[in-house]
Amino acid sequence: MDNRILYVRLPCNPIFPIGVIYLADHVHKQFPAVEQRLFDLGTVPPLDYASALDTCIDEFKPSLLVFSWRDIQIYAPVGGRGGNPLQHTFEFYYARNLLVKLRGAIGLLRVAQGYYGELWRNLGLIKRGMKRARRYNPAVRAVVGGGAVSVFYEQLGRSLPKGTIVSVGEGEALLEKLLRSKDFLDERCYVVGETTARDRMIHEVPTPIEKTACDYSYIETIWSEFDYYLQAQDFYVGVQTKRGCPHNCCYCIYTVIEGKQVRINPAEEVVAEMRQLYDRGMRNFWFTDAQLIPARKYIDDVAELLQKVLDAGMSDIHWAAYIRADNLTPALCDLMVKTGMNYFEIGITSGSQELVRKMRMGYNLRTVLENCRDLKAAGFNDVVSVNYSFNVIDERPETIRQTIAYHRELERIFGADKVEPAIFFIGLQPHTHLETYAFAQNILKPGYDPMNITPWTVRKLLWNPEPLGSLFGEVCLQAWQQNPNDFGREVMAILEQRLGRAELETALTAPISPAKPLALSRSS
């Protein structure tokens, strides 16, 4: 039987499914004769998931099913399953009012119900799809990958059907080998019930793939829901300019999944891909890199890309990205404004240089401020989202005061109405330095289940340790009560009211002696 690949994007928020699109595009370029179809359950009403999947399989009769699973982790500072998981958690653990505590408990039960419900539903859809496809091809195989799988690949293998290929990280090389009937087990994968995941497999170096512009004329022929993402004028479509992140931020798993080696996509190919979307009416683009400018050595690559965007005549677009703002120059700032950047996120985590160093983030906060001034001088007048993750490593009242001082300086540069503080509490991820730190401090024990969200594990996985955990719990609860629609700004205001504000210079200075790096062995 000829190879027929069905990509099934499992249900998630309506985010442009760039991962499976790039997979299908790569396979088509390598194997033009292979028939493919992309089926996006993110565009299907929940009550129709099963029947729609059945219909698609009945029509296409695949020989290979590729499931893309994007989301599992529930911790977030925004609304999610059954409401706001962070708010429910803080109400349950920190509220003094018993009615509020009860409300938090009920909210957490709904979150848990939604979390486990989605987990079992997706596992059920994978099993259903394989069973249905075997009606037409008894030898059908299944590959399961995506962001959720890459993080929880060890745990998910216990629940997936025997013979399922669990793929970690990028899947292009794996699919190539499958289609060529070659041994594929040297890729970052394992087969459920037949092989086991190698120790630290996620840390292995990904197979480098030369990326060319996605052929959207072809994608349109295999994906009937493509136009769904082009209808909303405020929707951002993803475009990738590079893979990999060279940094060691203690809580981040991007650098593990994508690898430390940054692989640049040629600027002319990125622009050619954008042009195809532009010609279909798209004007909003999100550069989906872990960081658009991960280090200063890549400044010229981004400048080349933005100049080619200008040269291509796409003068009425808007774009956004995660950006390390310590890697800007005045010339690059000018290009960013000219090409239509209207939003960006910077994840400095803390406004204290001491804590930034301890979390292995590699930021120079003084340089970030200088570059933000250059960006403002270049004419940037749009929104900046600044991610703060309080209480990660060695937080104390003085470092909180330093973060407040730093945030107020960002507001002075861009305008208070333009700087949105996003308050995160880290959801501890497997395979990160923070997990290793938790082992060393006996906060977690090796062999724990990171997918378990019982109350006694949530308090450890949602990182907010004492002695400051209760303080942040109280502050956040007060912020939700006083101004739930502007939670981040309210948190900053309450912290400043309670603790005051440091001199900016203290935030930008990190003496070497007290600022020890993240400990990876148990403290004495």
Give a structural overview:
With 524 residues, the chain is α/β, with parallel strands linked by helices. Helices cover 42% and strands 13% of the residues. The chain has a six-stranded mixed sheet with strand order 2-1-3-4-5-6, with helices on both faces. Strands 7-10-11-12-13-14 form a six-stranded parallel sheet. Strand 1 (4-9), helix 1 and strand 2 (35-40) form a beta-alpha-beta unit. The relative contact order is 0.09. Mean pLDDT is 90; it is low at 76-82 and 514-524. Its cofactor is [4Fe-4S] cluster. InterPro entries: BchE-like, Elp3/MiaA/NifB-like_rSAM, rSAM, rSAM_horseshoe, rSAM_sf, Slr0320-like. Residues 231-465 form the Radical SAM core domain.
